[in-house]
Design goal:
The protein is built from eight helices and 22 strands. It has about 375 residues and is of the alpha+beta class. The protein is globular, with a radius of gyration of 29 Å.
Length: about 375
């Protein structure tokens, strides 16, 4: 017995056209939504190589480092480049989208970070610029102090009150800009002196000799114990200096503390006869304290790329950053690890004078 196979009846033309239109419309909407999703801001920050600037040269036609009131010497050749990074995104005034983030992720010389690792929630570009500018100013003063210390040039250095949080032990007693001269009868030459006296006192009231608006006086502060069991005055301190001559550093639109070591080297070069670099191109990065200790910074992988792109042959890197250096050194760049300004100066002097720098310490 034969069986008849019935084919489905075709829908009317109007129904087919309506279905087709719905399918096309849905596809268009999906594409629009996908594009919109990919172009919306994403909470990430792109870190990429920034410019390298020769601190012993000129910027916008003017010398970056100038000295007044003391003999100084021109730098005729070579360079000591400060290195920078560019940060894009993560702020209300600056954001990136999915495509930007994807492109950055695929670019070896760039690094992508969640915004909260770089900026505090809700912070503005104006606030970031202000903080970076303050850090740059502090870095330049520390660089001058470190350079003069290394050259055995005497200057006056003090610790002053930067801020006093509400509820701290010194709240209502000390004021911002008070200079701390002595504590418990001991002259304050560094933060460690204060810490040692407070630890021995174990919470007893301490007599502080201070200078306020040019007038010396004595006040009493009873330290408070923090969550770590340490006794504190409840103040933030800053170094203040009185140098025997003026050192001015002029760099526009660059902030942060990471150029400190290179600034210090540039100042030393200006204050000593001859070309420290011997015509060779050095670059580097690292914070500096008044005693000449070199500290770690961020973005060193991008800074090495930027330095090599500007022609640097040698790169001075903080020893504390070695873990970030290994595996990211561009071809043709020799990295020299340093812990102090003196080590950095000795390395540049050795290579600049034609010595063999191949045995200098590097990151491994």
């Amino acid at each position: 017995m034969s069986q008849e196979i019935l084919e489905p009846e075709s829908p009317p033309t109007a129904v087919r056209d309506r279905r087709f239109s719905l399918m096309v419309g849905s596809g268009v909407i999906a594409v629009v939504l996908a594009v919109a999703a990919m172009t919306l801001p994403v909470p990430y920050v792109i870190e990429s190589p920034g410019p390298a600037i020769n601190t012993i040269g000129e910027f916008n036609g003017k010398p970056i480092i100038t000295v007044a009131g003391h003999e100084s010497f021109p730098s005729n050749s070579g360079s000591l480049d400060l290195t920078t990074v560019r940060l894009t995104g993560g702020l209300p005034e600056s954001h990136i989208n999915f495509f930007d983030a994807l492109k950055s992720w695929l670019t070896p010389s760039q690094t992508l970070y969640p915004a909260e690792l770089i900026y505090a929630p809700g912070v503005s570009q104006e606030t970031v610029n202000s903080e970076n500018s303050a850090a740059m100013t502090g870095s330049q003063e520390n660089a001058t102090a470190a350079a003069l210390t290394a050259l055995s040039i005497k200057f006056e250095s003090n610790l002053a009150v930067a801020s006093i949080p509400d509820g701290g032990a010194a709240s209502g007693i000390l004021k911002p800009d008070d200079v701390i001269l002595a504590i418990g009868g001991q002259k304050v030459t560094s933060l460690s002196v204060i810490q040692t006296v407070l630890a021995k006192g174990a919470g007893t009231a301490e007599e502080l000799e201070i200078r306020r608006s040019g007038k010396d006086m004595t006040v009493s502060v009873t330290p408070k114990k923090n969550s770590d069991g340490k006794y504190l005055l409840g103040i933030a301190l800053q170094n203040t200096f009185k140098f025997p001559f003026d050192v001015k550093i002029s760099v526009e639109n660059i902030g942060g503390p990471s150029a400190g070591m290179i600034f210090a080297l540039g100042i030393m070069d200006k204050l000593t006869a001859g070309d420290l670099t011997g015509g060779k191109q050095f670059a580097g990065t690292g914070t500096i304290d008044p005693q000449g200790q070199v500290g770690a910074i961020g973005g060193i992988a991008q800074k090495m790329v930027g330095a090599r792109g500007e022609g640097a042959e040698y790169f001075l890197a903080p020893a504390a950053n070695c873990a970030d250096v290994v595996g990211h050194v561009p071809a043709g760049l020799q990295v020299i690890q340093v812990n102090t300004l003196q080590e950095a100066y000795n390395a540049v002097s050795l290579i600049g004078s034609g010595g063999d720098g191949s045995t200098l310490p590097t990151c491994k």
